[in-house]
Amino acid sequence: MMKLVVRRLVLSVFILLAVSILVFAATLLLPGDPARAILGQQATPERVAALSSQLNLDQPAVVRYFLWLGGLFMGDFGTSTSFGGPVSELLGDRISASLVLMVLAAIVSIPLGLGFGIWSALHRGGKRDKSVTWVSLTLAALPEFVIGIALVTIFATSVVQILPAVTMAPPGTPVWTIPSQLILPTITLALVVAPYIARMMRATMIDVLDSGYVEMARLKGVPERQVILRHAVPHAIGPVAQVIAIQLAWLAGGVVVVEFLFRYPGIGQALIDAVTFRDVQVVQAVSMIVAVVYVVVNLLADIVGIMANPKLRSAA
Amino acid sequence: MTTAPAPAETELSTVLRIDDLRVSAVGGAEILHGISLELYRGRILGLVGESGSGKTTAGLACLGHYRDGLVHTGGDIEIFPRDADPFTLSSLTPDGRRLLRGHRIAYIPQAPALSLNPAIRVGEQIREVLDVHGFGESPQERAARVAEALEDVGLPSSAEYQRRWPHQLSGGQQQRIGIAMAFAMFPDVLVLDEPTTGLDVSTQAHVLDTIRDMTRKHDVASLYITHDLAVVAELADRVAVMLRGDVVEEGPAAEVLARPQHEYTSRLLAAVPDLPGRKDLSLATGSISQVQEALAEVSADKTGETGAAADASVVASAATESSTGLGASDSTAGAAGQDGFLLDVKDLGMRYGSNTVLNGIDMTLQPGESLMLLGESGSGKTTLSRCIAGLIDGYTGSVRLRGEELAPSTRKRSLAHRQEVQYVFQSPFSSLNPRRTIGESLTVPLEMSRRLPRSEHRATVEDALDAVRLGRSFYDRRPGDLSGGERQRAAIARALVNAPSVLVCDEITSALDVSVQASIVGLLGTLRVERGLSILFVTHNITLARHVSDHIAVLNKGVIVDRGTVDEVLENPTHAYTKALLEDIPQL
Amino acid sequence: MSENTLSGGLGGAGATAPGQPGAPGSAVGPDGEKGAGTDIKQSASKPRSLMRRVWGQSEGRVGIILTAIIVLLAFLGPLLAPLVTGYSPTEFADRPFQPTGPFGTDDLGRSVASRFMAGGTLLVLYSVAATVIGMVAGAVFGIVAAYTGGTVDAVIMRVNDVLLAIPQLVFAMLAIVVLGPQGWVLILVIGLTHAPRIARVARAATLSVINEDYIRAAEMYAMPRSRIIFREIIPNITGPLSVEAGLRLTYSIGSIASLSFLGLGMQPPAADWGLMINENRIALSVQPWGVILPVAAIAVLTIGTNLLADAIARANASTNVGNA
Predict the structure, then answer these.
(1) N or C terminus: fewer CB in 10 A for chain A?
(2) What is the CA radius of gyration of chain A?
(3) From residue C102, how far is each of B305, C74, C105, C112, C282 by CA, in Å?
């Protein structure tokens, strides 16, 4: 088992290194002189030269990559061209703000999705199952900004005005000082994520409920509740953990749109500003942060999957 | 037959009575057309039927369980427990029925590997039955019962063993856990659904012994569902025969098997291969296929099947006699190498990593000979047959055809070599592409061999379809329209279109019902004579030996342990493995 | 709208479908009495065409109708817009956010109705193009990986893992910051970020088919490998692939609309639904039509394609669905 976990760990590190190469290679694609491309045609030659040396453009690409990668390990994400200061300073508070949003969304959506998925599977083919299927199919189809705007329309403008439509905390104060501003972004993300978890849980549960050992448990006279909780659910955990992981990792990217919509001061907002101003260093940094979140969450899911499977667990 | 002497009929006391039971598919056809059966204390009733006969449905109905898509539409089941008043299943609440399961009525499923929960330790799974049904007064009492139940079925009762996971046990051990679980609550009735399918012969013999002992010891009324008449003969006191949702015959085992009253029973019996080879399977196939047609078959065009039977009856008996004359009669296909062998396998070995699958295999096939390669699952027989057919490369040693060495994989073999050795797969449900018509699939070998101009392809394929007694009307049909036997015939036809000299048949009857098996065996005999084919018949079923082969090679753990003519090996087996095999095989 | 997982969620249906073409299990399993004779023969002898089975389900019908409505709007809208409102999508009709015309004016005083009717064409075209690119690339890599196996498989799948570590939108932004928000960049980056996800599905589907004996039979007859892929494998994995195509189309629409909404997709002054929402959302309470109309259109389109994908999945999983 440890061997399996270590192998996953090594793979994760490998993936992150490859991602860093990919992200770095993107800068090489900048047409012409990257410094000029970033600063625009009107920039003075002095500024271009300054940026060039700041980006180590006088060095070969390989050297620049290792300088950049080394920086990442030291917490030095480079210098933001639009903001002017170090990227780490720009992103510091925003990372925690985004994490708060993601964790809240996960706390809401995971039980919601698992609950509806199991409930739906138990009433397979019935009215309740059908309604869960329709609702989850509909929600799963909608881009997050559509859900967000619908919620804003209902709760913050036209119908009832009980929640803030945008983040109101002044810059510099932590987002959780005004809890009400977290509600709509959290619900939006949860509504996007929960249907996937519910659908996966339902599909997995149905597979499991059709299995020989569940039929056997019933033929042993095991009460239905115990059949579900003891015989069926444990088998659904492994595969569903993978989906939850992908969903959580997706949150890392999905917050971008939601943060933009609610003007929420997280890394997503920073990413959009950076793209608008062609601030490559910030985009690289955010991409790497998001990739780390993705890889870590997936690693955790793999470990849960290994733990949930006695065959893998005992293969030591 | 080893059936224990059955006490006189008068001593029989009924424990479960099925009365005019009807089950239908939801909104569809009726599956069980009003069957009635009785189970007696301390007796085993063998419920025999081919696939689709409704025997599993009937068995599960005894537990008040109907699978998804099935509904109980009429009749009832009455139970006469040891220590309570009789009652009917329909009078119970759903919870009442649940309490019955695993307690008064226990179930032993077909596939133990799938029926044990892989994430619960085996001891715990037995313990669960006791917990659910409130056995005894204390946890200690239950723990003691778990240990006792394990010992009863001949398994260790140690705490270490109880803490094992299902995947750490062998198939036979898993099935015994299932039996221990079933007997844990001292049930009145036991329903066993093909509990030995998939187990090898010796394991099956042990499991059957356990079942027999436990039934007697605990005075349980057992319903043993199976397709295997030989097992019924070994085990059951009474037999009921099912055909398409009806019980057509019921009575004491010895009587039914010796003097069947119903036509279907006698045909079924005639289709079961026997070790002495006295039966003519092809006779059975004719009549059975007629019965099947008359009763149920859906496909309109079935002319081939009856025709096959008629021909086969003549030929199959001829084929069992001797092969030398037949092979020699064909001038080209049968021509052998300098040493007289058509196919010559020398020192063939195969390993996957550190696992040696085959070791030092020497084997020869003469023109027109039929050789049975006998082995149980895991013996390496499929690997060996695929090495010969060129489906697996990476083996060591050599395979020669008429003295010329064959390249290890079909892609490297010459056109002629590729045509001459043909392989038929075990499962006809997997070997034909469901998206293509039979004609398209059967044309592939011709396209690849470029032996004939394109314009002759269709005629050649149609000839092959005729040869396997399917008829050319099957050319445009898809595998989904065909029954298992028809698909297997089509697969054999595909092997024939290029006029091979060696046909490798890998367990080609094991996925089929016994009557279909008989017809396929008959067909092989016919083809052998008509086309001067040499056949390598790979199987786990030794009872087929005299029906298909002149020579036999016994493969065990990757080594050929016994070989010779069929008579030599069956009558004077030299190796302990062969002897055990012959002892353990259930027979009619 | 999340990027990956419905494919995972449907994995159950998708993965089993190719494994049992022609429902062998039910025909003569060891004792597969579940369906007994009748229903086997029915389903096997005349498999209704996929389209009819999709239409036979309520999800399928609703999905097709919803999708068709928006596609018609997207393609006829630009032609009809000037006729209905009297203004082209970029003409100024009045001052900003006035109730002039059917649905008032937008942030720059252009006709909301005109811009709405003209705003779906590019979205639909780009989404379809991105989906096609993703499907082709993904299917090729997935099938080749599964069929070739060994090192090729390992390399393709590891590259996949790497690409998957960057969420689609973030990847798109990385591309846009470097190459600029041009149409081909959008199509290419959305399509190519779908590819690894599609490759996974195609690989799984292929693996389940590849162990079937009819593939071994084709190998045995030395059928050229390309022919095995086209004649034996692809026809048997069209089921899961078509489901995947439906899902990816839904996600493409969502991603491209999202990028436009963020101001990183279609650029002004083009009329585009996502962009309209971005332009007009400051006036959501005063002049909501400029937001509500495009939001509704995107919602209906994505719901339609998603329902369709789900109906295809069901039609594949069981040939009996839609009979009742």
Answers:
(1) C
(2) 24
(3) 74, 18, 9, 8, 20
A112 with A256, same domain?
yes
Token pair belonging to A145: 């900004």
Percent of chain C whose predicted confidence (pLDDT) is above 90: 14
- Asked if residue B114 lies in contact with residue A211, where contact means CB atoms within 8 angstroms, the answer is yes
Give the C-alpha distances (Å, rounded to integers) separating C38 from B29, B478, C14, C162.
7, 18, 25, 49
- A251 and A106 Cβ atoms separated by less than 8 Å: yes
Interfacial B residues in 124-153 facing A (CB < 8 Å): 128-129, 132-133
| B422 closest CA partner among B503, B510, B516, B312 | B503
Residue C18: phi, psi to the nearest 5? -70, -20
CATH of the domain at A181: 1.10.3720.10
Q: Which residue has the higher pLDDT, A269 or C102?
A: A269
Contact flag C236-B52 (C-beta cutoff 8 Å): no
Q: Of A60, A86, A112, which marks where a domain is finished? A: A86
- Number of domains present in the structure of chain A: 2
pTM: 0.80
Q: Which site among A124, A208, A209, A213 would you substitute to test the B interface, given the most B Cβ atoms closer than 10 Å to its Cβ?
A: A213
What subunits touch chain C, counting only 3 or more CB pairs under 8 A? Answer: A, B
- A39 and A168 belong to one structural domain: no
Rg (CA), chain B: 26
Domain final residue pick, A23, A57, A86:
A86
> DSSP labels for B447-512?
HHHT-S-GGGHHHHHHHHHHHTTS-GGGGG--GGGS-HHHHHHHHHHHHHTT--SEEEEESTTTTS
Q: Which two tokens stand for residue A51?
A: 């940026």
Give me the residue label for tokens 């900048």.
A30
Are residues A158 and A115 part of one domain? Answer: yes
Residues A171, A37, single domain; the answer is no
Residue type (1 letter), B342 = L
- Chain A nearest CA to C203, separation (Å): 18
Least confident of B103-112, B240-249, B443-452, C312-321: C312-321
- State CA B247 to chain mean position distance: 22
Q: Are residues A76 and A184 in the same domain?
A: no
Closest-CA residue to B228 (of B248, B201, B250): B201
What pLDDT does residue B588 have?
75
Chain A: residue nearest B131 by CA? A222
So what's the ipTM on this one? 0.82
- Residue linked to tokens 């091979």: B500
Helix (H, G, I), strand (E, B) or coil at B26: coil
How many residues are listed for chain B in this entry? 588
For A109-138, the pLDDT digits (tens) are 999 998 888 888 888 878 888 888 888 888
Kindly report, residue by residue over B339-388, the tens digit of the pLDDT.
678 889 889 998 888 888 888 889 988 888 889 998 888 888 888 999 99
The kind and range of the H/E element at B203 are helix B201-218
Residue B425 has its nearest CB partner, among C34, C213, C221, at C213
Q: Which chains touch B (3 or more CB pairs under 8 A)?
A: A, C
**Statement to judge: residues A7 and A49 lie in one domain:** yes
| Cα–Cα distance for residue pair A64/C32, rounded to 1 Å | 65
A34 is in which domain, residue-wise?
2-86
Same domain, A13 and A160: no
Same domain, A147 and A293: yes
Instruction: Give the model's pLDDT for residue C317.
Output: 67
| Per-residue pLDDT reduced to its tens digit, B515-558 | 888 888 888 888 888 888 899 999 988 888 888 888 999 998 88
Size of interface A-B (CB pairs under 8 A): 73
DSSP characters over B28-76 = S-EEEEEEEEEEETT-EEEEE--TTSSHHHHHHHTTT---TTEEEEEEE
Strand partners, B37: B18
User: Does residue A278 sit at the B interface (CB-CB below 8 Å)?
Assistant: no
